[in-house]
Every structure is written in C-alpha cells, then in structure tokens.
Design brief:
The complex is a heterodimer of chains A (112) and B (419). With 112 residues, chain A is α+β, with helices and mostly antiparallel strands. Chain A is built from three helices and six strands, in the order E-E-H-E-E-E-E-H-H. In chain B, helix 3 packs parallel to helix 6, helix 8 packs across helix 12 and helix 10 packs across helix 14. Classes of the chains: A alpha+beta (112), B alpha+beta (419).
C-alpha cells in the first residue's frame, strides 16, 4: 500500500491548500484507508456516499480525500492554516502518509 | 437547531429547485460568488455596487428569515437571532455574532465567506480597501428587523472593518434609518409551481439521473462546520439565497435602464460572462475533483461526458432542470429548461421581465462548450484562472437565447455554435 513518489499541487489548488498524491496500486485504497484510520486519523462520516473516503488528522484539521476506485489522494489543508506554513505542512503530512504506506507493507513482526 | 432548519427544506424534484423556509436556495462556490459581486461593481462602480448588493441581501434575507422564524416557531428575539446565526453558518457563510438590540448594535463576523474567500483567492496578490461582505451586511440588518418584529428597511447596516484590507476581523454596524421601506419580494414554492410548465426530458437522461441522485445525496449532508465553512470539491461552498443574485442583477439593470439605457447590452454581456465563469470554475472544478472521480470516475475528455456532467451538476446545485436537446461535438449544443432560478424570478418578480438578466444559463452554454473542447482532461485538467483567461481570449463559441421563460416563452432554450 505504498504511495507513489509524485507530490504536487492538485487541480483547483488555491493558495497551497490542495495537494495530490497517489497510491501505487489503486485497488488497495479501501485497505489503505482502513489502515490509516487505525494510525491516528479519524474517518469523516458520510463521505463514502460519493465513492471517496475522507480522513482527518485531529491535531491539525487537515484532511485526506481518498478516491476508493482509483487510489487518488488529495491532501486538503485546513482552510485556516497560515499561508506561509502551508507548503511545509503539506509536505510533512505527505511524508507521514508515505511512512505509513511503507509500514503497512511490512509484516506485523517487522512493524514491531 | 440543525434538525429544525432541515425541516424547513423543500425540493421540487420535477424542476430541480430547492427551497429553504420558502426561499429558493442554490449552491455556488467562492469563485463564482466573488465574480458575481465583481460583476455588479463593474457595472456601477464599487460604491454603488456595494450598496446594491447590500440592499439585495437585505431584501432576500428578510424574506428568508421571516419565513424561517415562522416555520420553526421561533418567537423571542434571542431565539430568532440564534436561529439566524445558526442558519448563516450552516449555509457556509461564516460565523456571525449578532449582538444587536432593537435599535441596532455591532455584529462581529468570522470567516465571512466573501472576505475570507477573497483573501484566500487574491490576498497577497491584490489589495482592496472596499469591504467584501455585502451579503453578511444585509443579512445582519434583516436579522435585527426579524428578531424584533421591525418593518423591513427600518434598519441599515454597514461593514466597518473587513479582513480584505488587513483588519484582524470583520465587524458590521446596525442602526436605525429613515430610508424608504424595502419590499422583501422573492420567489416562493407555490408561485413557482403555478408558473412553471411541466418538466420534459432531454437526451441522455439515463446517464444524468444517477449522477444527480448521487450528488444530491451528498449535498444533503453538507453543512457548515463549527466555523461556518463548507469545503467540498476543493472549493469553499455556499448554499445561497437565489433571490440575492436575482435582486442584485435586477436592481443594477433597473438603474442602467433608467440612467444609461445604452449600457443595458453591456451589462447583459457582463452577466453572460458571469455564467461562463460559473460553468468553468464551478462545473469544471467539480469535474476535476476527487469527489467526482469517486462518484463518476476520472474525466476521460469525451466532450459528451463533460456536457452530461455539467447538466447533472446544474440540476444538483438547484439551478433548474437543465436538459440537452441536441449536442454535436465540436459544433453545436442546444440546452433547454422549463425555467431556471433566474428566469423564474424574472417572470414572477421583475418589473420588466422581458429584459430580465438570465445570464447564468446562457453564459454557461459557452462555459460548458469550453470545458468540453478547450480543456485537456488527461492526464489531469488544470482548471485555473490562467486557463480561463486563455479560453476567453480565444473563445470560438457564440450563444443565442432562442426562447426566454422570463419573457413569456414556454421554456428557456439556448443554442451554442461556433462563431
């Protein structure tokens, strides 16, 4: 459930709030969402009606929108994030998600 | 309180109109909302434009809030002011702290949609001294009047501070006035039902219907968060009073028709441009969003698929039952509707319906053809201002409105062709 290397401003990004990354294997998106939800992100209810899952980092309010059928991920920084801090916070969240993706590939024993 | 507000919703499914407490409601994003206000200001200048927009909000908000307090049975001023602030936030307009008595007072605003949206979109690149929150300003005056059972127009409101000029927050002063009373007219469900013709199908209904259904189910659960902000499809979204847009356009049109009749056509061209911008930014932004990808799949770039998506979006957002009468890729688009949120207002409310603005439906025809043929959707589209301006400079499309419901025809019908 690894994330691809690419990380860039997403379509419609306004003032560095929307960022795009992708799972290498889109078919694994539901499992990835489940895994990330056990790693400190909370699931936003009701979002799956559109075929997406939305996860929220409770400490920052930043969200990750995951397209269940394709593996597209969109990082949506909280709208109140100060502009000068946005790029760095997006990058940090992406790095965290990448680390989680790598962690999910390891066996439970390795992960310990 | 949210459940109480929900009970005041009404959906006219056959015509794809939504009402809240008897007032028509449409969904628009901050890109369009800012563009719309700018359109009014472009026509008459910032000072008059702001006055018109505030007045439009005052009228639309008074009718809306009066209907809301009656519908939910809010009787005391405290209940009514709390209800007004709650619904304002639920609709994605930010937070209002209505510290107002019978004679007025000060209203503090946080994350007000227009000021906040402007700062997000243009802050750091453009400077602005004129306050941006005319809608919140008119709403504050109306909320005070409704809370204390005062005559509409007996209070005025002025935004004294706005974050667009670097202020820390927004504040609005409400006070008494001897100005002329206002007439809080607007469309209501019953009169809309009476005047609208029976709905009719267009092409590709089997593909449009499930998209509309999915989008509507999603939108029914969308409301402002604890800051009064709705973020969906990657934009700031509002559920907005359709009467606000319609009053502002009609009032501007009235002034121009009276003072500078030669400028009417120029204003109509501005409204058409607003419709094109709406289609490009709102429809295009949604088509490129993860939510759309989840519901429908990634856009393939097939022009028909884009047209179908845009028509479905217009219906889901409460614009009316737009339909595809004819589509020839790269050549021609004919769209119809038994009425739109603009043309129903013009027919029912405007003094001179034949001259009604009707810009969104007409201008959107061009925007939809630009999205269908001028945007590279693969590997991914870049729906931004730069592309919008490029497409506008080299626009190969022209639109004609062949039937106007506002002017007394049986439907709205537009034809888009190459120049």
């Amino acid at each position: 459930m690894k994330l691809a290397e690419g990380f860039a401003r997403d379509v419609g990004c306004r003032a560095d709030l929307l960022w795009r990354c992708d799972l290498v294997d889109g078919a694994q998106t539901p499992a990835w969402v489940e895994f990330v939800a056990t790693a400190g992100f909370s699931s936003v209810p009701g979002s799956s009606r559109l075929g997406v899952a939305v996860l929220e980092d409770p400490s920052s309010g930043h969200r990750i929108v995951a397209v269940l059928r394709t593996g597209r991920l969109q990082i949506r920084l909280d709208a109140m994030t100060p502009k000068p801090a946005r790029v760095q916070q997006a990058r940090e969240l992406f790095d965290r998600l990448r680390a989680l993706g790598s962690q999910s590939e390891r066996s439970p024993a390795e992960a310990r | 309180m949210a459940n109480t507000i929900d009970s005041a919703r009404l959906h006219l499914s056959e015509h794809q109109f939504d009402f809240l407490a008897g007032s028509p409601v449409v969904v628009h994003c901050h890109h369009f909302n800012l563009f719309w206000d700018q359109t009014m200001d472009d026509a008459l200048g910032e000072e008059v434009g702001r006055r018109i927009r505030t007045h439009a909000s005052h009228k639309a908000s008074y009718k809306f809030l009066r209907g809301l307090v009656d519908e939910v049975g809010a009787t005391s001023p405290v209940e009514r002011l709390r209800l007004a602030a709650t619904v304002f936030s639920a609709m994605g307009h930010g937070k209002l702290h209505l510290a107002v008595g019978r004679s007025g007072g000060l209203v503090r605003g946080e994350q007000l949609h227009y000021g906040f949206g402007w700062s997000e979109k243009y802050g750091g690149r453009l400077s602005r001294s004129e306050p941006a929150d005319a809608f919140a300003t008119g709403f504050s005056a109306a909320a005070t009047e409704v809370a204390y059972n005062l005559d509409p127009g007996s209070r005025r409101a002025t935004e004294e501070r706005c974050i667009v000029d670097g202020s820390a927050g927004c504040s609005i002063r409400v006070s008494g006035t001897d100005a002329e009373p206002i007439l809080p007219l607007g469309v209501d469900p019953q009169s809309a039902k009476e005047v609208l013709p029976p709905p009719f199908d267009g092409l590709h209904e089997d593909q449009i219907a499930p998209i509309v259904s999915g989008l509507r189910e999603f939108l029914s659960g969308v409301a402002g968060d604890d800051r009064g902000v709705i973020e969906a499809f990657g934009v700031l979204v509002t559920a907005h009073l359709a009467d606000y847009y319609n009053h502002s356009a009609n009032d501007v049109l009235d002034i121009i028709a009276k003072d500078k009749p030669a400028g009417v056509q120029a204003f109509r061209a501005l409204l058409l441009e607003a419709g094109t911008a709406c289609a490009f930014h709102t429809f295009g932004g949604v088509l490129a969003s993860p939510e759309w990808e989840g519901l429908v799949g990634p856009p393939t770039g097939d022009p028909l698929e884009v047209v179908i998506g845009c028509v479905a979006l217009a219906r889901a957002l409460g614009f009316g039952r737009w339909a595809i009468e004819e589509f020839a890729p790269d050549e021609r688009l004919v769209m119809t509707s038994p009425g739109t949120y603009e043309s129903v207002f013009s027919r029912l409310i405007s003094a001179n319906a034949a001259e009604g603005p009707g810009g969104i439906f007409v201008g959107a025809g061009i925007g939809i053809m630009q999205l269908a043929h001028g945007v590279g959707w693969k590997p991914r589209a870049n729906i931004d201002s730069e592309l919008y301006l490029n497409l506008a400079r080299n626009n190969p499309w022209t639109v004609t409105q062949e039937s106007s419901f506002a002017a007394g025809d049986v439907l709205d019908r537009i034809v888009v062709t190459r120049r």
